[in-house]
Amino acid sequence: MHFHGSVLCAALLAVLPVHPLPAQSMRLASPDGRNVITVALDGGQLTYAVSHRDRAVLLPSSLGFAFRGAPRLQRGLRLLDSARAERDTSWRQPWGEVRTVRDAHGELRVRVGERNGLRREFVVIFRAFNDGVAFRYELPCQPNLGAFAISEELSEFVFADNPKTWWIPANRPAMDRYEFLYASSPLSMLDSVRTPLTLEMQGGPVVVLHEAALVDYAAMDLARVGERTLRPALSPWADGVKVRGRTPFVTPWRTIQIAATATDLVPSVLGLNLNEPSRVADTRWIEPMKYNGIWWGMHAGMYTWPSGQKHGATTENAKRYIDFAAANGLRGTLVEGWNVGWNGDWIGSYGKGFSFTRAYPDYDLTAVARYAKERGVTLVMHNETAMGVGNYERQLDSAFALYKSLGVTSVKTGYVNDRTAEGHAHTGQYMVRHHRKVIETAAKYGLSVNAHEPIMDTGERRTWPNMLSREGARGGEYNAGGPDGGNPPEHETILFFTRLLAGPMDYTPGVFDLRLKGSSGAERRPDQPRVRTTLAKQLALYVVLYSPVQMLADVVESYTNQPALQFVRDVAVDWEQTRVLNGRIGDYVTVAREAANGDWFIGAITDEEARAFDVPLDFLPAGARYTAEVYADGPGAHWLNNPQPVTISSGFVQAGTVLRIAMAPGGGQAIRLRKER
Amino acid sequence: MHFHGSVLCAALLAVLPVHPLPAQSMRLASPDGRNVITVALDGGQLTYAVSHRDRAVLLPSSLGFAFRGAPRLQRGLRLLDSARAERDTSWRQPWGEVRTVRDAHGELRVRVGERNGLRREFVVIFRAFNDGVAFRYELPCQPNLGAFAISEELSEFVFADNPKTWWIPANRPAMDRYEFLYASSPLSMLDSVRTPLTLEMQGGPVVVLHEAALVDYAAMDLARVGERTLRPALSPWADGVKVRGRTPFVTPWRTIQIAATATDLVPSVLGLNLNEPSRVADTRWIEPMKYNGIWWGMHAGMYTWPSGQKHGATTENAKRYIDFAAANGLRGTLVEGWNVGWNGDWIGSYGKGFSFTRAYPDYDLTAVARYAKERGVTLVMHNETAMGVGNYERQLDSAFALYKSLGVTSVKTGYVNDRTAEGHAHTGQYMVRHHRKVIETAAKYGLSVNAHEPIMDTGERRTWPNMLSREGARGGEYNAGGPDGGNPPEHETILFFTRLLAGPMDYTPGVFDLRLKGSSGAERRPDQPRVRTTLAKQLALYVVLYSPVQMLADVVESYTNQPALQFVRDVAVDWEQTRVLNGRIGDYVTVAREAANGDWFIGAITDEEARAFDVPLDFLPAGARYTAEVYADGPGAHWLNNPQPVTISSGFVQAGTVLRIAMAPGGGQAIRLRKER
């Protein structure tokens, strides 16, 4: 990070010619002129404002920092100099929701300094893209600002209206994570919330506040400090400091994605364009994959993580799951509860008993790994830390070296706790540094990472493509447990327009026994946690909720005699392009994605209301013919009392064909368009 | 109240024969069997559960009280005796949204007592109606429970699912009132909220929690005490006590309205049936009315409440508003800022300077009242108290006597402050008693009451029909001021299914200058507070948001050359019956109401989305013919940038005619069906 910082510092000195009389108000427009940032010095404060198609989005909002042990850096400023740049490049993702990403933006770098006193300086870099704007701070090397402790970042987002927002709460003492159901309210009703925060301005546009390139800083929540004003709320170190650093220093980008309608928000690449290019030269070892695992059985109460009579991670059980993976073309099998440390209060002790190399006696890791390898399957190694970061970091090299020797290509990490044993916040700078260390160490050993209870995605995957996916929201596991009744039918229609804008999510779809009969054979009541979708909607989620690693979440027993399983066998996990065909936040969404082989997959989901749409296939290339394999809600399907019926049919389609997509309450539809060759 | 209490106590002793071996679980069903309450003693606690059409709505929820200075009354209980009753009667409203109300219910009275210790007793009365269930506590006269101080009411509402709720926050320190925009979230995300609370269970039914007959108790908010469990949160006295009383004592009813769909919630009469019959023998002096007033001019910045250059309440100005009222058939004219006390910090001083009899020098109250009377108009006297309750109560008799002598028939009260000077909560028992005193005193002087910043309606109007209407939500005034941009287009579509279920609301519709050009002539920007509806929607609100007093809120200048004013002249404020033709909470609603003369009025409103519906007029009596006078959104109408266009048309309709109702974004439609005679 410090090396990284110095580079920017050098660059800074290089690119900023001194203008003797700099303008006091500067305008930066996106390449198409749609988005405009206006930067000004107003009463000694540096402010920025944002407009979209000549409509104000953000009114002048001030910038700066509060430090512990030093005066605020916010007032009494003068403009020192500024510089502009324009870029228009494209880059390719090794894997993703879209193959080629265009990065076209205008850039304005503004350097300001205090007129008197400490005469400290800082730089703000603004970038204007056609799909939004962003800014970040640079704190250059200077006499009166060396090592520092940020107590508050004073960036403001002053909205020019009172938009409707979809949000989850931040800093709930009981659960400092992202695993909440969404609430919706006008901005003026917010307290403290997580990002990405999606805001629908009355009469449009739709705006998403988030961050990019979170490398050595605290994750950003947003606190409302005025009727329509938000400010970053940074997760603290144990001593309350938010961010520790030393100049030269650079902050993450604050991103303001802007789209005419919610459906224009996807694919969301603004954050990717603001991360650095890949540090991994040869990415061929990084494997997007479908996987199954010994996991849902524990959530559903059939198995336990700790060893004992119901222990899920046994050699025999693992082989059954590997057999299923091999038989259905899945590349990975996850086995949770394989390693010692689960017995006893592993959460209260911050997982100090966890070994990441020693398996339970009833689980022969070496034999299982060999068994998998012989069948073309790779184990997904599970590393639950319980936020015992020290314990995990001490074992990182030995554990990852072991996994590599077993032919393993990926790990699933877990951070089930609200803070570290030392009291550092779940999403603070301390944990940001830890996650970076895990990613970089994993890359060294040819391992990819799928993090659960993570810090929110800020585009790390561009720089470290082995950062495949993460949780960071209320996933499918809540349909098996928790006292609040599982995820409501609208949940995924909100996730698509909120959490998923940050990046891939390992939502773990594919539960086929929707009433959780489980081993007992007894159906759960509607008021008990169980899956609140139809089976067709479970299939559609593979297309709608993007992730390069997609789980077949259910226990293997649930997939027997299930013709609908064919769709999950067929569906891709890496895409050439993505089209959102329709959608409304919290109500429904229909997504089409093109696989590398030219096949298209369509996923449509609805909330508790039945819906029908006519969807023109105008995105198909002229001349090409496709066989549409349709998995639709069957007769009488209903998430509440009849979730299982699926009707499978097929027919020929081509560009211009109009598909009728009808969905049951809480239902969905999954379609494969198989290209004729 | 004490007299009232004793009566119930006497009744209690009379109706409860002692059963030697009472059942430990009792079942009470609504007349149609749809709603069932199951009462049980479970481990020494009294619990109740509620089901609707055999689907669990509330799981067993316990009952009881915590006292200051005495042990909890909740555990170690045994059943003493029980009694049942069934009633099926009807009663007529002197005015209302429906003329005749049927009260058909089953009743179960359960008396329990502590096995040991103080051996205190209490009674719970359960009632099951076809439109919901309710319960209340009685604390009978007994040796070990005389004077008491309730610190918590321990009633639980344990939901059998995690419903979607529409809520406003309770006990915000900055604003202990009801004037918030609505948020929506699953029940599991609530903190502390106001009632009525509307909860849509996944897969139905829709449930509304509220209270009825709030006579001498603290108003009930709801706090979440478990993932899906709510409990009353009572507003306190200054010393923290929630409720003070002495046996015999009776609490308000806790009402649980239950309907298959949201549109079945209206008309909502459950609470009315749980209030006592009218104490006013001859109600002919009580006047539902349309009124205008010197009011919006202050909110829009043209006038001031205090005296001075821009003082709104001048004799001349009042006469202009009276002339307009007379010319347009309005019965009332409100004049705010007429009385001394507005100059200076009237909020900070809790209105101690307010006189309710002395007018400002530039306002000749006697002359204005006479001028009004000569034109068939009555003044609506305004009494803003700033929560200076003592000051107001000391002047009540002299003020109301004065108003009566001036031929005035109604007062509009105001309570702009978060608590009383003594620190009692805005909605606590102290204020409940005050509001009762005002209603009863007003009745004595032949005055009706329209309370702003009130306590929520709990059905007072049945017992005191001079309690005409109140605010108790974020009303139209917020479209003129406040930093959060006015009420969003969806606001009224939520109010209809939440706040309005409690009773009439003085929302003050009828703003015709939607961009608030006002005197300056300068339109406000969309991000500034202004009315976020089309003009047609303003008309529709007179039908959708029921109140027996409806204001023409705008300044008189805004009504000149406005053909649409005819609808407001025509629309009724008292109804024979009410039908909800369609609707979805937060999206849209269409309501039809029949006036006393056989005319029907239809109001339809939508949120920010344009919508069109085919509405069959199957509620019209066969054979009758009507002229439909339609006020629809005009070409290109849009709440954001083109709110004014209205198209007025007419045609013949009858039973079976299907009306096409098309609405613009943020729009609506208002229709008068004039019966041919």
TrEMBL record, chains A, B:
The keyword Signal applies. It comes from the Bacteria. Residues 295-473 form the Glycosyl-hydrolase 97 catalytic domain. The keyword Signal applies. It holds the Pfam family GH97_C. GO terms for molecular function: carbohydrate binding. Residues 1-20 form the signal peptide. Keywords: Signal. Residues 574-673 form the Glycosyl-hydrolase 97 C-terminal oligomerisation domain. Residues 28-277 form the Glycosyl-hydrolase 97 N-terminal domain. PANTHER family: GLUCAN 1,4-ALPHA-GLUCOSIDASE SUSB, GLUCAN 1,4-ALPHA-GLUCOSIDASE SUSB-RELATED. This is Alpha-glucosidase. The lineage of its organism: Bacteria, Pseudomonadati, Gemmatimonadota, Gemmatimonadia, Gemmatimonadales.
